[in-house]
Amino acid sequence: MLAEVEEEEPTGFIRFEKFLPMMTKVLLERRYGIFILCFILGYFPVLDEKKKGFITKEELIKYMTEEGEPFTQEEMEEMISAAVDPDKNIVPYKDYVSMMVVDY
């Protein structure tokens, strides 16, 4: 995975623009099993700048369409239906990741 996102001159950092498409592909292919699902829990707090424990539906859509490789409409609808709490229009990411681990 690091080989896919590493810069030609290693800096010790991974650029988000390279990370997101690679991680999306890994998740869709379920290449690394439950380990990668647990890793996601560490990824959501990066998106949750105010550390609220959730991101909004609008933020999720923004990240899925404007950052890195955009999701298709079908991928976006699937993610929204699985991740977004329909009553509150938020993604409580700890609950979402827990659900994904159980479903895996």
Automatic annotation (TrEMBL):
Record-linked Pfam families: EF-hand_7
Record InterPro entries: EF-hand-dom_pair, EF_hand_dom
Database matches in SUPFAM superfamilies: EF-hand
Domain EF-hand span(s) in chain numbering: 46-70
TM spans (from-to): 30-47
Gene3D superfamilies xref list: EF-hand
Record-linked PROSITE patterns: EF_HAND_2
Alphabetical keyword list: Membrane, Transmembrane, Transmembrane helix
Protein name: EF-hand domain-containing protein
Species annotation: Staurois parvus
